[in-house]
UniProtKB/TrEMBL annotation:
This is Alpha-1,4 glucan phosphorylase. Its EC number is 2.4.1.1. Its cofactor is pyridoxal 5'-phosphate. The chain holds residues 196 to 1024 of 1024 of the full protein. Keywords: Allosteric enzyme, Carbohydrate metabolism, Glycosyltransferase, Pyridoxal phosphate, Transferase. One of its GO terms (biological process) is glycogen catabolic process.
Length: 829
């Protein structure tokens, strides 16, 4: 058995020799061995990509050692575990992050140098793991890094999509989507666990069966699919702890459908089985709309069912009574996407483990916590009852039963207020009868978290008002955060070194509050000089990228003004573009002699539009059309450039953020639940031009209004402004820039018409016209500040110094203590 093997191995090799060495010559030998035996190339002839593969495998070996030790340690200690269920994880690249967290980046760089390779060049060979859309998915990735670093006994569970988020290609200024078949060249960062598989059932019927003198429900499924685990080790920084992100892939079930095989149609029987794999084939590319699609629901249940079988199996390995379940298991629902887990736990406990309903319900009420990431009630998922009934007939029954008990209880508390009862019901009786997944999650979770303070206020006063009044204690918020490991140390190594030098320690990498120590130095001229130098080098790196990608030459002395995020009407990239048109128009109409007073700008916009989101796609086209005009206008030269960066993703962000002087977070107040891009820019010393929306309100508290450029209607003003509609006063400049677009100044007159209609004639839902004046004023203030480089640099240092609160380490600690009730479980070195 395992014990005996262990003794034998230790006798053969000695205990200490068990660990792989990380001195440069051991690393070199390892890399060359992997070139020869893993990549199967000659060690005397291999290219950069093959070198990357060998390097990645060498790092993987070291990850696996720590990961094994961590799993053994968790098993021995048996602490309460947190299971983070999320349909999306946006991990990006793994190489640099892994070696930095393992503390062996420099050793690898040295080892490679002697072999004639440069670490950075090889790191560029890696593609992004883009198994998610935007903020929510990258948040999950940041939180995994924090969970590992802070030694929490955590598992992430998700889906291993074969096609990640589509690749964006710009042709003639239009977005085109191309499939991201990211596994084509293999993935060294995952470990396929062919023996960790579970059957997942779909369709079929529910029958009554006699049991112990009573009746019980039995689900006779119509389809079975196998879930296979792929483990992605997530290393902590400065700790041996390495946790697991377990992603499920769908494979045809081993349980063969004898019927079709016996009919002689062998080929079709095999081809039909292959269809099972489609469940985990593609990520849905819309980040905020839900359409009740069967495949999407299948994905949700597939990953929930496999994850829960795994979690319950692990629990039963060392526990005999489910009464201990809440002491050992916390389940986190990342948005409503995994909320079928609630019905699934009930089903397993009642139908398979034969607990009585009330006992199972008591357990369910103690284990789930739910975080919602949206502000729109319309944005919440609804599943048509017909669809659920056909795909998961037993789950529909269970949800009805939960709802029945709950509504009965509710009547006792609030009386027969039928309007309110129907609003609060899990079942919606509309034209299409459906299940409200958010209501299910709120009713059955012990805690409902928002993602910023402002968001939480909206949840309590609007989205979940009825629930808040009933259960105020359930509602809380944990302001989002991002990991400084990825967003400073990995992506901005020179700033990272500078910070460590001036703080006299690297401890801020694990204890980010120490960044506040930079405040005292904010006026130090030596720091200023070094700070500007680092920023300049980062801008040069970005300028090179821009030129390589678009042919546009930009000057690094210009202000780099960046807006990168998903394209959405509420995020108001259109406001940014209209502002750029206004700036262009001003330059054109100026006396030549006045042009010297203009602060040169490079405006950078990047982001993907959901493939079916027409208006968002028009915004991308408009950006490119305006860029075409401005960048080729000799009157303008270096005073203004506009660049659309295609295929925005995590690694593009890692390059762009450190090189930005100014970044825009300009959503209409009350629409961005939190936002996390603002936090990444803040950490990197980039100044923010922003509305007081989402987490920005909290950033203001940390760095003060004077350290950023705020503008726009406040959240409480927005509803009244909308009521005014056509009567709203809109500045002349706004009308005139929209007119330029309408009149075909940038071409494509017909195509842009509907875009213009969206912001004029009382249709301006996102208040671009209303906010235009104050937007221009904020931009003017930014220009003015930029001219005073000393002031700008001080503001930049204070931004980094004030960013500590926005680390995901803080977010995770709050979740651990207040919501999940878990404690660190540190693996000994
Ligand atoms: N689109 C919110 O809109 C928030 C992230 C992470 C979002 C952002 O404001 O920062 O979540 N919502 O909490 C979301 O995905 C399903 O809802 C987002 O990324």
């Amino acid at each position: 058995g395992g014990g005996e093997t262990r003794v034998r191995v230790e006798r053969m090799f000695g205990l200490m020799d068990r660990f792989l060495k990380s001195d440069p010559s051991s690393l070199q030998k390892d890399i060359l061995d992997h070139v020869e035996y893993t990549v199967a190339r000659s060690r005397f002839s291999f290219d950069d990509f093959e070198a990357y593969q060998a390097l990645a495998h060498s790092v993987r070996d070291r990850l696996i050692e720590r990961w094994h030790d961590t799993q053994i340690h968790f098993k021995k200690k048996d602490p309460k575990r947190i299971y983070f269920l999320s349909l999306e994880f946006l991990m990006g690249r793994s190489l640099s992050n892994s070696v930095i967290n393992l503390g062996i980046r420099d050793q690898y760089a040295d080892a490679l140098k002697e072999l004639g390779f440069e670490f950075e060049v090889l790191a560029e060979q890696e593609g992004d793991a883009a198994l998610g859309n935007g903020g929510l998915a990258r948040l999950s990735a940041c939180q995994m890094d924090s969970l590992a670093t802070m030694d929490y006994p955590a598992w992430g569970y998700g889906l291993r999509y074969q096609y990640g988020l589509f690749r964006q290609v710009i042709l003639d200024g239009y977005q085109h989507e191309q499939p991201d078949y990211w596994l084509n060249f293999g993935n060294p960062w995952e470990i396929e666990r062919v023996h960790v598989t579970y059957p997942v059932k779909f369709y079929g019927t529910v029958e009554d069966e006699n049991f112990n003198g009573g009746k019980r429900k039995v689900w006779l499924p119509g389809e079975m699919v196998e879930a296979v685990a792929y483990d992605n080790p997530i290393p902590g920084h400065g700790t041996r702890n390495t946790i697991t992100l377990r992603l499920w892939a769908a494979k045809p079930s081993d349980q063969i459908d004898m019927e079709s095989y016996n009919t002689g149609d062998y080929i079709n029987a095999v081809v039909n089985r292959q269809r099972a794999e489609t469940i985990s084939s593609v990520l849905y590319p819309d980040d905020r709309s839900y359409q009740g699609k069967e495949l999407r629901l299948k994905q949700q249940y597939f990953f929930v069912s496999a994850s829960l079988q795994d979690i319950i199996r692990r629990f039963k390995d060392s526990h005999s009574s489910f009464d201990d379940f809440p002491e050992k298991v916390a389940l986190q629902l990342n948005d409503t996407h995994p909320s079928l887990a609630i019905a699934e736990v009930m089903r397993v406990l009642v139908d398979e483990e034969h607990l009585d309903w009330n006992r199972a319900w008591g357990i369910v009420c103690k284990i789930f916590s739910f975080t919602t990431h949206t502000v729109l009630p319309e944005g919440l998922e609804k599943v048509p009852v017909d669809l659920l009934e056909s795909l998961l007939p037993r789950h529909l029954q269970i949800i009805y039963d939960i709802n029945f008990d709950y509504i009965e209880e509710l009547k006792k508390k609030i009386g027969l207020d039928y309007d309110r009862l129907s609003r609060m019901s899990i079942v919606e009786d509309g034209a299409v009868k459906s299940i409200r997944m958010a209501n299910l999650a709120v009713v059955c979770s012990h805690t409902v978290n928002g993602v910023s303070r402002v968001h939480s206020e909206l949840l309590k006063t609007r989205v979940f008002k009825d629930f808040y009044e009933l259960w105020p204690h359930k509602f809380d918020y944990k302001t989002n955060g991002v990991t400084q490991r990825r967003w400073i140390v990995v992506s901005n190594p020179s700033l990272s070194a500078l910070i460590s030098k001036w703080l006299g320690t690297e401890a801020w990498i694990r204890d980010v509050d120490l960044l506040a120590g930079l405040q005292e130095q904010a006026a130090n001229v030596d720091l200023h000089e070094e700070w500007r130098m680092v920023r300049k080098v980062n801008k040069m790196r970005l300028a090179e990228y821009i030129e390589a990608m678009s042919g546009i030459k930009v000057s690094v002395s210009a202000m780099f003004d960046v807006q990168i995020k998903r394209i959405h009407e509420y995020k108001r990239q259109l406001l940014n573009i209209l502002g750029i048109i206004h700036r262009y128009d001003c330059i054109k109409n100026m006396e030549k002699s006045d042009r010297t007073k203009v602060v040169p700008r490079v405006c950078i916009i990047g982001g993907k539009a959901a493939p079916g989101y027409e208006i968002a796609k028009k915004i991308i086209k408009l950006c490119n059309a305006v860029a075409e005009k401005i960048n080729n206008d000799p009157d303008v030269g270096d005073l203004l450039k506009l660049v659309f960066i295609p295929d925005y993703n995590v690694s593009v962000a890692e390059l762009v953020i450190p090189g930005a002087d100014l970044s825009q977070h300009i959503s209409t107040a009350g629409h961005e639940a939190s936002g996390t891009g603002n936090m990444k820019f803040l950490m990197n010393g980039c100044l923010l031009l922003a509305t007081e929306d989402g987490s920005t309100a909290e950033i203001i508290e940390e760095i003060g209004e004077d350290n950023m450029f705020l503008f726009g209607a406040k959240m409480h003003e927005v509803p009244a402004l909308r009521v005014k509609g056509p009567a709203l006063k809109v500045p002349l400049q706004f009308a005139s820039v929209v007119r330029m677009v309408r009149d075909g100044y940038f071409g494509f007159q017909d195509y842009f018409e509907s875009l213009c209609d969206k912001v004029e004639g009382g249709n301006d839902f996102y208040l671009l016209g209303y906010d235009f004046q104050s937007y221009l004023e904020a931009q003017a203030a930014a220009d003015k500040a930029f001219v005073d480089q000393e002031k700008w640099t001080r503001m930049s240092i204070l931004s980094t110094a004030g960013s500590g609160r926005f680390s995901s380490d803080r977010t995770i600690e709050e979740y651990a203590e207040k919501t999940w009730g878990i404690e660190p479980c540190k693996c000994p070195f």
